[in-house]
Each structure stands twice: as structure tokens, then as C-alpha cells.
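job 3f2a | input accepted
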Amino acid sequence: MSESDPIGLARNEIIKALQSRQSGNEGRARVCARRAAGYLVKGYLEKNGIKDPGSSAIIRLRLLLSQPGLSPDVKQTAGYFIIHVNPNHELPIDVDLIDAARRLADLLLGIQL
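job 3f2a | predicted structure (113 res):
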């Protein structure tokens, strides 16, 4: 799958995230969910004629968060993906990034993952 299909790439990352969680690798599941979010933001940027800043999910998410007029739901959901893990490699808040990626897909693009 190529970068020209960000939704397909996001779907693949969600599948990988679920597989990682099922095998007990929550850290890997978070990484895959974050990559899925990055691809979703790429799709949103393309849809809205905004230049993609590059292939990093974090850079894309930061660009998204800098856009005026985003709903509080989009800001909160996208913000989950740029929270740093603590020294125990855990998120400091109780959030499921796979669910957050699915919510972001709905909020940004009106699609279900």
C-alpha cells in the first residue's frame, strides 16, 4: 500500500495495533495506533488542501492541532497521540489509543475504522 492511500494505511495500522494488543505488546499497539492517526491526519490535510509536512505522525498531529476552528473533540482526541509515556513506558492518562484513532477517523473524515 502506498502513501497515496492514507485511509488504507490507517486501517492496516489499526489491524496491527489490535494484533499487538492481543499478543500482549501494548507499547507496540500504541505505536501502531499513533501511526494510524498520522495517516488519518494526512487524509484530512489532503482533503482540505493543506500541505503535508512530512511522514511523521507527530509532526502531522502537531500541524493539525495548530489549525484554527478545530472542534474541542478533535483537539482532545488528537492530543492523546502526542502525550509522552512515563518512565514505565505507560501513558500517564487512561486512554485507549486504538479507540482514539477510530474516533479521530470519524471526527476528521467521517469514516469508521
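job 3f2a | The helical segments are 6-22, 26-47, 57-65, 72-79, 97-109.
job 3f2a | closed
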